[in-house]
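quick one, 583 residues, struct below
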Amino acid sequence: MLDIIQRLESVDPRRGLYLYEDFVGPPEFVPYREFASRVAGAAEHFRARGVAQGTRVVLPFETSSSVIFAFLGLMELGAVPLSVKPYILSTPKGPYRDFLARIRERYGASLVLDAPSLSGLELPLERLPLPPAGAKVAGAKLREVAPGELAFVQFSSGSTSFPKGVPITQENLAANLRMITRHDGRTTGDRVTSWLPLYHDMGLIGGLLTCIAVGNDLLLSQPASFLMDPMGWLELISSERVMGSVIPNFAIDYALKTLKSADADDLKRLDLSRVRSIYLGSEPINIPNLEQFLDILAPCGLRRDVFMPCYGMAETVLMVASVPPGQTVRVITAPNGQPAISVGRPLTEFEVRLRTEDGRLCGEGELGEIELRGGSLAPSYYQDDRPLRGDEGFYATGDLGFQKAGELFITGRINDRIKVNGQSFFSADFEQAVERLAFIRPGRTAVIQVKGRLVVLAEVNHPSALERLEDSRKQVCQSVLETVGVTLPPQDVLFIRYGQLQKTSSGKLQRRSITEAYEQGRIRTVTPMELRADLLQMRAQRIVLGSVMVARQRGRRWMASGKAALSAGLQRLRPGGQRQDGP
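---
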């Protein structure tokens, strides 16, 4: 990575990192030409504080230039950044402190980067100050690294256990970056946007480091900016002539709510014709929602072949397979009778095979667990005795799928498999069926199996769904029957208080924890009065977090419409629309 940053000194001075607090205001621009000097400046700051090669530093990876250069500066020293989720305001402090304490104990880290989110938080580690703003070493020559040297540690999603540290070597990092950028064919003249958090592999590798590797512009926004303003993300793509992005499926589901109620004039202003490739991954893809998204934005120039469903994981740095640019999404029927979407052919560097539940290797179109070998697969977990690879060098991913004509199809996780009358389904099959209903909150449903019973735990978005409780339950059961073909008793559909469905740092449901909470009687159903209180609290938080963003967005749109009206008026005043100089 450091040799790539060194070479950036010769790129076009207009190329670089554009950091947005939201999708509206002017960004902070850091030209790639300055990266080497900024990295060296951060390294000198840390060296003066005793950080040396091999020092383990817990790094809450916030989206800011100071934290990005701190991360790269630690890499320049040969220290080991442990990339973790930053503390998020309004969330409990105790569990976050406990998480940091477990990281300290498990990996022997004594320092934590003093990122702004940690202000006022009691910590179980010594704070390491951030480098001063704009710290540089002019004319810096970054060191050469050995291929097997540890670059940083990223963590698995932790959907079934405490997140496992994955050691990312310089060699594996460079290899996976080459795979990704070769696959999408981007050039230095392209522009990419991302709002994904940098503590997650999709955000760090797929969003940030691929752009640095090629030297193409990256328009990087805060994760909360998308949550507050999904339309603003599309407006940024339109106004800044963006070629591509990398997003989880959640983004499609979430943005669709806004698009369905968007003003026609707002949609008319969007020009998405330059978009060529959007990596789409992280979760089971909701196929009907993806189709609706494409239908709504087709008049804005968004082509149906821009989405590239992909598959990857922290253990391989990131990407293992992806649909290539310019290929429409392929959907076929899976062995369990449910629709499945192709994630393309595995990259040539990886060897992929599938194994059935009874241990036999799968044939064409047969469902089994995905096993990987080669490519940028990590040699082991970080300071962990648990083996990553089996006797033949294959890593059993825990993901289930099948292959057809060389393409890979992902159907779900082993731990998410649900068996009904001898037939295999996946939790996501049921959850997507439930979330088709307008009164269910998108992304806030968990379907679990307890002693053979299927139980639906869902959050609703309006008290009226609770006031006609039996009818709402029957609608859920009907949607599941029509979509999945399984009958549910209405009494096993529970509408619950907000905030009880635990998720990983990457947004995946922690199904084991949710199931345990249900079995122990800790999942609370919600009354209309409690739901009104939850909605008021959530609305207040959104007002506090989003008032400035919304005001600035409205201001920009008002200015845009005002300028357009003024321009049209001036054109009408000028004979023939010709330019006139002078008074």
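Residues 556-583 have pLDDT under 50 and may be disordered.
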